[in-house]
Write a structure and sequence with these properties.
This protein has one domain. Helix content is about 30%, strand content about 30%. A five-stranded antiparallel beta sheet has the order 1-2-3-4-5. The longest helix is centred in the middle third of the chain and has 13 residues. It is globular.
Length: about 90
């Protein structure tokens, strides 16, 4: 699973040829959440409150880039790196 970004100990990844809806995975320590790109809703899993807030802030800022990466993954192409949250 390609890592597309990492910040504050949080790793953001996306699978190739994954099922709809468009989503990404956020991993922090032993926690993992699957997050819908369009709605920023947590589909599965959980993250600590602070880590989730950081992921949501980042995802809102880079939603367009996330959708571009989703489309690349669906076409079996390597997604592009996305700037980390600073």
């Amino acid at each position: 699973m390609p890592t597309i970004s990492a910040f504050f100990g949080i790793v953001i990844q996306m699978f190739w040829r994954e099922h709809a809806p468009p989503h990404f995975y956020a991993i922090y320590a032993e926690f993992e959440a699957e997050i819908d790109i369009r709605t920023l809703e947590v589909l599965r899993g959980q993250l600590p409150r602070r880590a989730l807030a950081l992921v949501m802030e980042w995802a809102a800022e880079y939603r367009t880039e996330l959708m571009e990466d989703w489309n690349l993954c669906q076409a079996k192409q390597l997604p592009k790196r996305i700037q980390p949250l600073e």
